[in-house]
Amino acid sequence: MTMTAVGEARQRLGRIGVGLMTPLAPADEWRRAAVRMERAGYGAIWVNEAVGGREVFTQLGVMLAGTDRIVLGSAVANLWARHPAAMQGAASVLADAYPGRLALGVGVSMGHIVEASGQRWTSPLAKMREYLDGMDAAVEAAPVPSVPFPRLLAALGPKMHGLARDRADGALPAAMPVEHTRRVRELLGPDKLLLVMQAVILETDPAAARGFARQTPMLTLPGSPYVRSLRNLGYDDAALADGGSDEVVDACFIWGDEAAVAERVGEHLDAGADHVGLTVFTPDLASAADQFERLAPVLL
User: Fold this and answer.
1) Helix (H) or strand (E) holding 153
2) Contact at 8 Å (CB) between 104 and 74?
């Protein structure tokens, strides 16, 4: 992408988006939730995948077809789920069909997910570099969208941030403190996109909010990249044990009432994020849409 195209992507995405991460739900429920988010005024909807199950490009196609304006993005498309030429081709087809409405986030996933799919986990940085080479080699065989789609790399560590700067249109970190956002912006420079994913817990009781955050496996997964990134920010083993100290939880999760959420989102934007994608912990898509509609008046 050119600098002008990056500027266009910033405008299309807007400052705030939402992540709809419910693993399984009927297509009609996804369409209804997407329409509600578009009507609420959010700039983008982000969806994820593992390897198998809810395939991200099919999911994006369902939601693009059911909406009119909102950008749909992968946060992220798992590179272990498909050949790089298939990644490039799928994104190009959707971007051609829905000009200006696709953002492609690509990620290396985590070792335990990859091994469970029957593949052998290798160096994330080398794997991503090789994969981007394969995507680039497939460009000429794919459709040419009238509006180029941004290619973003899920990146938590400085080496992957450097690759995002040099080989992509920006970075897509998740669940990191504001200081991480600041450092990534410094490394990327002003001409790359920085999209930050953050989890929100609409709970004003500190013990309840922190207890809920500690139930997530972010810091307890084998070989967690989140742990490595937080160590790079200066957190020690004691702070990272048992689901994280209060300081770690408060830095990595946004909790509180609507005003508190808006304040924390603003801190990431002030630190250099172009766009903040918010996720919530709910049992179904309708409940997630309820919370995002509740937040919209203070965020948008």
Assistant:
1) strand 151-153
2) yes
